[in-house]
Design a protein that fits this description.
This protein has 336 residues and is mostly helical. Helix content is 75%, strand content 2%. It has helices at 2-14, 16-30, 33-39, 41-50, 60-83, 92-109, 112-136, 158-167, 174-183, 192-217, 219-225, 230-242, 255-287, 294-334; strands spanning 143-144, 147-148, 249-250. The protein has a three-stranded antiparallel sheet, with helices on one face. The longest helix has 41 residues, at 294-334.
């Protein structure tokens, strides 16, 4: 809790609004399992490298790196919420403050040779946000009373959106990468930069699974807001193919048809992509020179389990949707 208390105190000294937002965001972190897991990721990475050896959580270095990770995670998340219109624009200065706090700590703790890697990943996240604004979010002018102009949606491949969605979250591993750089024992059998590249690739695949799960769960809500996820793009592409005469739709009215397209046309490919990402991440993890990999194995298994559960529901959902189609057909037969 020491990094959290310090973060709140520093924010309060900067501006009362920052202090209130710091309270709100840290409360969210402490009461959300996955977010809390990402906050403690540098410490878990440290113990994964060394097993049960090494310093305690009270280490000044680990406290500082957790502080930076906290600030960075809040900054990324808040910018994402602002872009998605889930947070007001006047919270943007606080997001900038969070990123500045992260940079300050990273500059002090990371060796100069590591700064280029940090900037490279942050450039990737910036590019992902630009891509999202240009290609993934339909402007409010294209939304007329929740009517989605499907013909105006950028003709961009779902795979490109998926790659961008994973890249924008890569900043969350920067603190852990600094931990690896500091504590990974030197060994001639591997090079540090190869380990860091592999660690990045592991999380790129893990985040792709996590993002795909979230996008499937939020499909209708996202489309209703004009947010085009990889799954949403695939569903809309198929809807346009089936209904070429339509240029716009009320998402809520078409909910049944859109979900039907997801389960019948998109789900098999979605499941395949998750399986492929899980296989890649597992192979990468097996080669990482960490003493204790149980945490990362658990993280990956939990993300993939969501897709496995969805697959078990696939047949039941198709049967349910078919029953609705049958009922609708019968009802129409009796309508005048």
């Amino acid at each position: 809790n020491k990094p959290i208390r310090l973060f709140i105190n520093n924010a309060e000294k900067t501006h009362p609004l920052f202090g209130q937002l710091a309270h709100d965001w840290t409360y969210k972190i402490q009461n959300h399992d996955w977010i809390r897991t990402m906050f403690t990721l540098p410490y878990v990475t440290y113990h994964s490298i060394l097993g049960h050896e090494g310093e305690s959580l009270e280490s000044e270095f680990l406290q500082n790196i957790l502080y930076a990770n906290l600030a960075g995670w809040i900054g990324y998340s808040l910018m994402d919420d602002i872009i998605d219109h889930d947070a007001p624009v006047n919270h943007l200065p606080f997001a900038n403050y969070c990123m500045r706090e992260m940079h300050t700590v990273f500059s002090a703790l990371a060796p100069k040779s590591f700064v280029a890697r940090i900037n490279r990943i942050l450039n990737m996240t910036d590019q992902a946000y630009i891509f999202e604004l240009e290609k993934r979010i339909v402007s409010t002018s294209d939304l007329d009373s929740k009517k989605l102009n499907i013909k105006n949606i950028s003709k961009v491949t779902a795979s490109s959106i998926s790659e961008s969605s994973a890249q924008k979250s890569l900043g969350m591993i920067l603190a852990s990468m600094i931990v690896i750089e500091k504590y990974l024992p030197v060994n001639n059998s591997y090079r540090l930069h190869n380990v860091l590249d592999s660690f990045t690739d592991f999380f790129r695949n893990y985040l792709a699974i996590k993002q795909n799960n979230d996008d499937a769960e939020d499909l209708i809500d996202d489309l209703n807001k004009g947010h085009i996820s990889p799954i949403g793009q695939s569903v809309i592409n198929e809807y346009i193919r089936q209904h070429q005469e339509e240029s716009s739709i009320y998402v809520i009215e078409k909910k049944h048809q859109l979900l039907k397209i997801f389960w019948e046309n998109v789900f098999p490919q979605w499941r395949k992509e998750i399986c492929n990402a899980h296989k890649k991440a597992s192979d990468i993890l097996s080669a990482l020179p960490f003493k204790d990999k149980k945490y990362f194995q658990k993280l990956l298994s939990e993300a993939s389990a969501v897709a496995e559960k969805a697959e078990s529901e696939y047949a039941r959902t198709k049967e349910f949707l078919q029953s609705i189609d049958f009922a609708t057909q019968k009802r129409n037969e009796y309508l005048p």
